[in-house]
Amino acid sequence: MKYSFFLLVGLLATAGSVQAHELGTARHIANEGILVSAGDTKIMFDPLALSGFGTYPEITAEDKSAIFAGEGEFDGIDIVFISHAHSDHFSAVDMIDYMSVQTDVRLVMPKQALDLMKKEEIWYDDLEARIDVLDLEYGHDAVRLKLGEVDTDIVRIPHAGWPDERRASIQNMLYRVSLPSGATIIHMGDADPKAQHFEPYNDVWDAKDTHAAFPPYWFLTNEDGKSILTNVLHAKHSIGLHVPINVPDDLKNSGESYLNVPGEVKVISSHGKEPEDKENQEPEHQHDPEHQHD
After folding, report:
1. Global pTM?
2. Number of domains the chain is built from
3. 104 CB contacts (<8 Å, ≥6 apart)?
C-alpha cells in the first residue's frame, strides 16, 4: 500500500510538471501585421500596410527594408496572407514590389486586393502564377487551401461594422493555418464580433483546436467576442491586434494579451497560454511611428 501511495504521488507530481511546448512565435510588424515563425516555416499576415493614419502602429523603416531584402527574421518567407484590402492592412504597390523581388513567396488574398494591384502601372501578369485569389461571398462554404505542408481553412467573416454596406461589401478573410510544427493559428482581419457569422462553420471550428488566435482587439473587450474565441473557435490563447498606439483603457484593464509595438514577440505554445517570463517580450528599441485608421 505504501508503494502504491508513493507511486501515485510521483505520477501526480510528474503530470503537474509537464511543460508547455513552444510551437512557434508571433512577431509584431505593425497594426495587424505579424510574422509567424515555426520551425522551418515562416508566414506573414498583412505585413505591408499603406498607412496607420496616425492611429495605429506603422512598420519601421528597418523592418520594411528587411522584408523587401529577405534578411534576418524575414529571410525564407513561405506565404503571405492578406486579410482585406483596406490601406491600414495592405499596400498594392508595396505588395507588387515585394513579390517582384521575393520570387519564391506565395500570396493568398481576396480578389478585391488583387483588383487594386492590377490597377497599378507597375503590375505585370506573371505575378498571378504565385497568387491564390479568394472571391468569396458572405455565407460561402469554407475553402481549404494546401500550400506545401501548410494547410489553411478560409472563411469570409464580415468586417466590423456589418451590416452597414460600406463594411458588408468588404471581403474580409479569416485564416486558420496549420503549420508543420504542429501549431494552428487564426488571423481574423477586422472581423465583426457576432456569433451568427461564425456558427454556420461549427464543423470547421470543431475539427481542431487553435493554439493561438489573433483577433482584432475588440473581441477581447467584448463578452460576445471572447465567447466566440473560446467556445466557437476553440482558441487556447488569444492575442489582440489592431491596437491603437494609445492603448484603450478597457484593453489595458482587461488582462488580455495584445501586440502593438513593432518587434514585440509572443510565444505560440502547445498549451495555449504563454509562459509568464515570455508573456511580454519586447524589442530593445520601441518605435514611435510618425504617422499612424482603420
Report:
1. 0.88
2. 1
3. none
* Helix or strand run (H / E) with residue 174: strand 173-178
- State the amino acid at position 103 in one-letter form: T
Sequential DSSP letters for 225-261? HHHIIIIIS-BS-BEEBS--SS--HHHHTTT-EE--S
Residue 14 lies in a domain: no
* Position 68 in a domain: yes
The residue ranges of DSSP E strands in the chain, in sequence order, are 22-30, 33-38, 41-45, 79-81, 106-110, 131-134, 143-147, 150-156, 173-178, 184-187, 212-214, 239-240, 257-258, 265-269
Write the CATH number for 178: 3.60.15.10
Cell numbers found for residue 216: 482584432
Domain assignment present for residue 168? The answer is yes
- The mean per-residue pLDDT over the stretch 38-50 comes to 97
Q: Give me the residues paired with residue 107 across strands.
A: 80, 131
Q: Which domain holds residue 132?
A: 20-278
How confident is the model over 192-220, as pLDDT tens digits?
A: 999 999 999 999 999 999 999 999 999 99
pLDDT tens profile 83-121 = 999 999 999 999 999 999 999 999 999 999 999 999 999
Any domain includes 247: yes
Look at the block and give the residue holding cell 494546401: 146
How far does CA 55 lie from the centroid of its chain?
19
